[in-house]
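Interim report to the steering committee. The following record documents the input for C-type cytochrome (277 residues).
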Amino acid sequence: MNNRNLLYALALTCLLLVFGAWMLTFFHYGAAVRQSPPAQVQNSLHTGPAAEPQFNPPRPQDAPEAIRDAVMLGYNILTDTAQYAPGHAGNELTCATCHLEAGRSKNSISLVGAAATYPRFSASHKGSIDLAQKVQDCFARNLNATPPALDSRDMQAILAYLQWISKDIPVYASIPWALPAALGGSHKADAVSGAQVYADACAACHGEAGDGSPPLWGKGAYTDGSSLHDINTFAVFTHRFMPPDAATLTPEQALDVSSYVNAQPRPVFSAQPAQGK
């Protein structure tokens, strides 16, 4: 009897030892898994600085078949607004006047990444606006035109195009090629000096009376509600890109000519109800 009890005790002890060893192994493995997630999970949890967006916009004709027609129409509207959206052209400008190659060029106000930066705050709206509302603003303020309705074919085509050329830009990424709000420095804009800068560097293209190609003042130009009617915005654009392919104006000259140009008469901005099919 004693021998039998001893055998039972030994067997039970062995079972308990095996069970204890299994439990230690199980919990040790579980802790290791919790502490060391798979490589793809570790990569997704990486908190280092994000890679800087690259300027490599896709061609509109390379858009997927399901959206290609809309993307191409949006591209054409931006390139030749009067032909492709005649109901939304109110002066002698097109979207491509400021957005060369329909916004696919760095040598102008690029639209690559625009779709990734909205909604955003708008001072003129005193609140947040989305991309479609910004497009409407551009038509009304820069083209002096009735803007396309939010649900119109023209608006949907423009949005499809802007989203396509921004497809590789992370949402709310910092866009390296975005223009600064101002040139900086302490120079005060001088319209008198700006008149001479205009005569020397601008009149050959834009005309002595500002009615050249494109016009900078008069009935064919942008309205007084345009972003270009802000001296700082106009100065940044002029300093960076004017004359085209040979920008030579100093920051001081750009500010002076901006002051001169924006002091000239132009259409008064008047909000119009959106229209379109």
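The CA atoms of residues 54 and 94 lie 27 Å apart. The committee is asked to note this result when reviewing the revised timeline.
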